[in-house]
Amino acid sequence: MLSVALRTLRTRWVTFTGSFVALCLGVALLTVTGLALASSATAPERAPERFAAAPVVVKGQDTLRVPTPIGDRESRLAHPRPIPAATVAELRKLGPVVADRSFTVRATKATDAPTDLVGHPWSTAAFTPYDLAAGRAPRTADEVAVTGDWTRPGRQLHTDRGPVRVVGTLSSRDFENAVFFTDARAAQLSPSVTQLAVEADPAAVREAVGDSAQVLTGNARRLADADPGRDGEALTAMNSLFGTAGGVTAFVSVFVVASTFAFAVAQRRREFALLRTAGATPGQIRRSVLTEALAVGALASATGCVLGSHAAPRLAAWVADNGLAPAWFTIGDHTWPYHAAFWTGLLVALCGATAASWRAGRTGPTEALREASAESGTITRGRLLCGTALLLAAAVTLGLSLAGDSADLLHRKSYIIRPMLLITAAALFSPLVLRPLTRLLAWLPGACAMLVRENTAAGMRRAAALAAPVLVTVALAGSLLGATATLNRAKTAETSERTTAAFVVTPPSGTGFDESALRRLRAVPGAEMSPTSSTAVHVLEDGVALIRSDARAATPGPLAATTRLPLAAGEVSGLDDDSIIVNEEWQRHRVGDRVRVWLGDGTPRTLRIAAVMTTGTGDNGVYVTPRNAPGATVDRIDVALTDDADPNTVATALHRALGTGNGQILTRDAWIRATHPETSRTTRLGLLLVLGIALLYTGISVANTMVMATSDRARDLAVLRLAGATRWQVLRLTGAEALTVVAAGALLGLLVAAVNLAGMASALALLSAPATIELPWQALGTTTAVCALLATTSALAPAALALRRRPSELAGVRE
Questions:
Q1: Are the beta carbons of 384 and 313 closer than 8 angstroms?
Q2: Which H helix or E strand runs over 215?
Q3: How large a percentage of the chain has pLDDT more than 70?
Q4: Which tens digit of pLDDT belongs to each residue from 469-500?
Q5: Is 0.90 surpassed by the pTM of this model?
Q6: How far are the Cα atoms of 123, 178, 489, 562, 656 from residue 153, in angstroms, in the given order?
Q7: In 10 A of CB 288, how many CB atoms?
């Protein structure tokens, strides 16, 4: 049977081209993702950047450490502790001390300026060191020096900190776009000091500091750079991206290979019948099909590994250039990704051919010859059982999640992985629903519609092989993009329900309001102010898990006047300096209970639960009073109007009190639009990569199926020509059949996406969050249109070639 299998591959090479291409691309993608994952396992330790020339850096404590029975648990503090004044005084006795300040500066009305700059005092420029390329150092409050060559001395720069004049430019640095103010102006813009550069003996500095702060020397000075853990975070996001892409590649490639082999076996029934008549056993037939899959799989996997080895370095350069990976990221010398990709590709080929081989070997010679003229029993018992099992698994896992942890359904890993079960079940059941669905779609009277209905019904295996990849692609597009859109809409609705203020006042990015600005705003007549601050609260759950919750510090009375909290128990008025408002995600969330927490600066407190909020989409954090948020500055002011206040008059007074360059004032509706959540760039690219892979495989499968099917229907096309149909009528009929099946597959995919999103909506409803299903109609329409274009092109091209021959010649073709 080996010789038979090899000769079959040679004579039916068109049939196996689709499987070869799909497997080759799949293995190439798996090789690329495997190499990327292996190369990003660990991040090299960065050298110091901002303080590369500083002998010693003293940094305030910024990490909370809590001892537990299984070791210390750590969490980043929301408000790093400032260096005590007494410690600073002791350090000044040892040598020169320079206070470091870093704050965000947003450039406006300057098309050639970077959008976000990082402000520093000029005295810290010596520790990078920056080279002054042109001009001089700033000397007055309205003068700055900037890095890069995007401007020159003498130009005006409009920022959210007010207009400034550029008096000097410095050499560029890869890690930031900096703008240097005078030390006095930087102290006004960022009063808090959490880092010091000290020119003294490190041992003496450690003795002077003691336990009040961290002393950083050598490579440890990198911990004083902005976001020292950014490499690890970027690698984690990249691993998630490539891991998801690899999983979807394996998932979709199984569909393509399985559908291709199933359709190929269905087309070769007469060939198998002749082999059975000649004495071949069912086992020999199965082994022949599996041998064909093994040969195709081995060759395709080897080719894919070669392609992947050439594509991986280019992908590494692309993700680094686009900010999805650190600039240093490159592909290392690893061998296990090649083994994993090769054997996975081979396994996918064998798994895809197993069901087809079983069907090929179980029919007898006479039965196979009888089935050669008409299809029957388009869904096998094994397919029915597998589809039922997957459907039950999808329903049971969804029910368990809804009954247990509903919030898990809102996580990215869940709404990417969970749809796979339902999509697979729908694809297995598709032959049962395609016949009535295609009849419904082709209900129009007329000969063409009648032929479309009957031809599709007679070739249900062909229709199922074409509809399956369309179903998968449309369902993935609807489920993944719809999940993010549904979740973002729910978050926006939560913000809308929670915000009752007429105006929201915010400071320049990365800063807070000072006391003078707060006094001016509070003096505005007809307005009731609710200043709030961003902070965090830590709690130890089960004695071993240190959980950080985002929090806001607010005064209860003004908070109740400007915000409608989604309370499940308790009252906002119960909040005081000895209490806290939590949400139902907390392990202890009963009103009146006392919980031990660590505040944003690490201070331990035991607070009483005054009220409990619903879980919602996860944005319902924690509320404490300003006294329990040491180090936090007011970064938002909600403004409610008194009964007789005029909104326009109050808005004018607010703008006058705030002044120019000190923040912005938004109406309630404008604030909701401005804070509308957007899918992160990494997540968006990951979803687009997943959908791109699915669409690529759909194109391969659709093209292969249509070429195989249309070329195999040459006699049917000839009969239509002999019956009087013109060449263009036959082509229109062929295109209409392809479009009908694509439409049916798209409708099934839309139904699967709607069911998946209904599960997310149910989770949102159980979490007391607004639940409205949001389908990405534009993406669904584009995906369906691409599938339709591929299907019609792949159907019309071989049909047009076949119709170039005389009908009598085509009618005489024998299989």
A1: no
A2: strand 213-216
A3: 85
A4: 888 889 988 988 898 889 989 988 888 888 99
A5: no
A6: 19, 15, 46, 46, 32
A7: 23
